[in-house]
Specification:
This protein is an all-alpha fold and 162 residues long. The chain is built from eight helices and no strands.
C-alpha cells in the first residue's frame, strides 16, 4: 500500500504537467534554511522540455524569492525575540550596504542566512525583495545556460555510473 502511494507520488511529481509545480516547491524549500538545491530540478524540467526554459526559470525565481521572503520575516521576528543580541561584522556589513546585499542571496551557504539578516536589520522590504529576485533570477539563468551547454553524451556517461 505505502509502496504504491510512494510510486504514485514520485510519478506525479515527475509528470511534465506538474513539472513547474515541482520546480516551484523545490525552489521555495531550498531558499529556506533547509539544505536543498533546486538547480537539478530546474535543469531536469528544461532538459525534458526545452520550450519551458523561460517559464521554468521564472517559476524557480518566484519560488526561491518567496523562500527568501520567509527567511527575511524569520529574521524580522527573531529581532523582536532577541533584541539584546550584539551585532557582528556580517550585520554591520548588511546595514552598511542595505538592500543591495540581497543581490547575494543566490550564493550557496550564506545566501539564505543573508536574507534572514536583512529582516533582522529591518532593511526596507520591497527593495530587498527586488534585489533577492534579481540575484536568484541571474543565478538560475546562468546555471541552467551553463548546464545546457554540456553535451548529452556527458550526461549519459554520468548516468551510467549510477
Amino acid at each position: 500500500m505505502i509502496e504504491n502511494a510512494t510510486l504514485w507520488l514520485l510519478a506525479a511529481i515527475a509528470a511534465p504537467a506538474v513539472g513547474l509545480t515541482s520546480v516551484f516547491v523545490i525552489s521555495f524549500v531550498s531558499a529556506t534554511l533547509l539544505p536543498l538545491g533546486s538547480e537539478p530540478a530546474v535543469f531536469a524540467v528544461i532538459k525534458a522540455n526545452p520550450a519551458l526554459f523561460w517559464p521554468t526559470i521564472l517559476v524557480a525565481t518566484c519560488g526561491n524569492t518567496l523562500g527568501g521572503i520567509v527567511d527575511y520575516w524569520m529574521g524580522y521576528g527573531a529581532k523582536k525575540a532577541l533584541s539584546n543580541e550584539r551585532y557582528g561584522s556580517w550585520m554591520r556589513w548588511v546595514q552598511h550596504f542595505g538592500a543591495k546585499t540581497m543581490l547575494l542571496s543566490w550564493l550557496p551557504v550564506v545566501g539564505d542566512p543573508l536574507c534572514t539578516l536583512g529582516g533582522w536589520a529591518r532593511l526596507p522590504f520591497w527593495p530587498c525583495v527586488f534585489y533577492m529576485a534579481a540575484g536568484k533570477f541571474l543565478r538560475y539563468l546562468a546555471a541552467t545556460t551553463v548546464l545546457l551547454t554540456v553535451p548529452d553524451d556527458w550526461w549519459r556517461q554520468i548516468g551510467s555510473w549510477f
